[in-house]
Amino acid sequence: MNNYSPYGTGVVERWYQDNTLYCAFVDGTIVEYGSNQIEERFIEVWRSDLTQTIQDLKSGRYDFDDYEPEEC
What we know:
Low-confidence stretches: none
Strand order of the largest sheet: 1-2-3-4-5
Radius of gyration: 11 Å
Mean pLDDT: 94
Structural class: mainly beta
Largest sheet: 5 strands, antiparallel
Order of helices and strands: EEEEHE
């Protein structure tokens, strides 16, 4: 896994949900950050599905765990 900075140039969307920071990146990776903004888990989706996946996560339609995230 690359080093995904929550404030880097590759960030498409950044949001908080339940005091947890999530960032979506242009390559289709969505990263969940823990305390001190350290990468904890991530998922990878098709870039063509990224916008819909972000909307689903932000709306609560799906939970991050529904996508079977991997540890960083």
